[in-house]
Structure to design on (361 residues):
């Protein structure tokens, strides 16, 4: 039976991308050698790395003075990497907005590098909204935010205004929409939410802002070092980068981020419209801050929950159980999720409501 994969991460990838990646594992472009058994310094793999980096630059219109790097350690290492590359060694000071579990983790790591000013938080309402009224100290070395809160289903629909360098963890919404990269000192993202398999982390960093902290940074965490070596300082995660390259090619063929943004808006609207119209469900995030990638919702009455769970299971839906800190359901509808799968989910929700409400909505 066809599966409808709503997993929050690692995420759904297009079948053609999976098939191309699978072929490359046995034979990379007719070389007779596997992608994962050749030297990362071979011309074949260097071409893959350059193509992947080039596609990032092209799709997001990355300015000339930025480096695009595919590193390791996940966004979780990105938290500390960001802090240590941007916070001054002497009197280092950073500002963060706390919009959920990932922001919190970023804050925790940054405290290892210097002082952290949490300028706003939505923890008072279980991270169900994006704070908007706050000011960022002018003397902060940078301001950090999480553009999409994968667990809580909220998303920034604006770029925060600030005069200090802006850093963003864009793990779960990068490439879902157009972003003006020139506004950022750095963007980083674990690729497994919207670009590829787990194993590599994308960094897009303004070279002019690197190397200014006065710190001795360990080589593997030093972005200047990685930028100087064109993302090949050590053996890169070749499979994750190759698959990401295939996904970015898929996105380009589709019309790029501008095209996917339209599709993503339509997909999210389809699902939120059902949640709002259906008497047995309600959304958990403030309407104006709703994520286009992770749609969180709960039941208004859990009496027949077991039956609903049986219904969607039988329809081939997987991965919609909510995170334990929110409960209910979370449908992750990343770039590769077709609207047809969302329509299967909304049909089940509608059938469920028709079964258990006396007056049909
Ligand atoms: C998943 C996620 C992370 C953690 O990514 P890893 O690559 O697993 O370290 C960080 N931030 C956000 C917003 C995420 O969704």
């Amino acid at each position: 039976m066809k599966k409808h994969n709503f997993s929050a991460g690692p995420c759904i990838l297009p079948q053609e991308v999976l098939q191309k990646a699978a072929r490359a594992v046995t034979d990379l472009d007719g070389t007779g050698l596997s992608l994962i058994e050749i030297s990362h310094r071979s011309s074949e793999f260097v071409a893959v790395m350059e193509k992947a980096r080039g596609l990032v630059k092209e799709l997001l219109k990355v300015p000339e003075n930025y480096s695009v790097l595919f590193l390791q350690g996940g966004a979780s290492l990105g938290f500390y990497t960001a802090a240590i590359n941007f916070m001054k060694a002497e009197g280092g000071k950073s500002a963060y907005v706390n919009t959920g579990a990932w922001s919190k983790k970023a804050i925790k790591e940054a405290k290892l590098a210097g002082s952290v000013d949490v300028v706003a938080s939505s923890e008072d309402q279980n991270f169900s909204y994006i704070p908007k009224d706050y000011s960022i100290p002018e003397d902060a070395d940078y301001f950090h935010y999480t553009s999409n809160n994968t667990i809580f289903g909220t998303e920034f629909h604006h770029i925060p205004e600030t005069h200090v360098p802006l850093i963003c963890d864009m793990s779960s919404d990068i490439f879902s929409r157009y972003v003006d990269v020139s506004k950022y000192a750095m963007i980083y993202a674990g690729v497994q939410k919207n670009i590829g398999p787990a194993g590599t982390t994308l960094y897009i960093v303004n070279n002019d802002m690197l190397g200014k902290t006065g710190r001795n940074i360990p080589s593997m965490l030093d972005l200047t070092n990685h930028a100087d070596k064109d993302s090949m300082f050590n053996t890169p995660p070749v499979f994750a980068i190759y698959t990401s390259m295939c996904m970015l090619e898929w996105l380009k063929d589709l019309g790029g981020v501008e095209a996917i943004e339209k599709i993503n808006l339509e997909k999210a609207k389809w699902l939120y419209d059902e949640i709002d119209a259906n008497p047995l469900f309600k959304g958990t995030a403030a309407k104006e801050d709703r994520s286009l990638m992770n749609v969180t919702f709960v039941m208004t009455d859990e009496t027949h929950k077991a039956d609903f769970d049986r219904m969607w299971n039988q329809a081939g839906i997987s991965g919609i159980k909510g995170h334990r800190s929110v409960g209910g359901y979370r449908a992750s509808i990343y770039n590769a999720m077709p609207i047809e799968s969302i329509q299967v989910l909304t049909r089940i929700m509608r059938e469920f409501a028709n079964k258990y409400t006396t007056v049909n909505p």
In short: The first strand starts at residue 4 and ends at 5. The chain has two domains: 4-10+256-356, 15-254.
